[in-house]
Amino acid sequence: MKISKIISKDVVDVNTANKLGRIKDFKIDLVNGRIESVDIVLNLKVSNLLKNNKFTVPWDKIKSIGDKVILIDYQKNNI
Predict the structure, then answer these.
(1) Strand 19-29 with 10-13, pairing
(2) What 3-state class would DSSP assign to 72?
């Protein structure tokens, strides 16, 4: 799958089914050619609860990438 197809997909927490936001950017390990993490821009509901409007999720927390959404295992204390 191309990165351009992943950008702007909705991100949903698999634990709560809450929509967290959208993928905005990637951090890539150029030596190994792997994605290390993704930056997620929060939706308004979530960003009003937090100081920042984005957060970074390690790639291993992404559980599934579908046609319309990306499922992540979001636990505040683990990210």
Answers:
(1) antiparallel
(2) strand
Distance of alpha carbon 61 from alpha carbon 43, whole angstroms: 19
Rounded Cα distance, 71 and 61, in Å: 9
Q: Whole-model pTM?
A: 0.76
Q: In this predicted model, what pLDDT tens digit does every residue of 19-45 receive, in sequence order?
A: 989 998 989 999 999 999 999 988 765
Residue bearing tokens 């960003």: 47
| Measured distance CA(61)–CA(73) in Å, rounded | 5
The C-alpha atoms of residue 29 and residue 53 are separated, in whole angstroms, by 24
Provide the residue type at 45 as one letter: K
Pick from 79, 51, 62, 60: nearest CA to 23 = 62
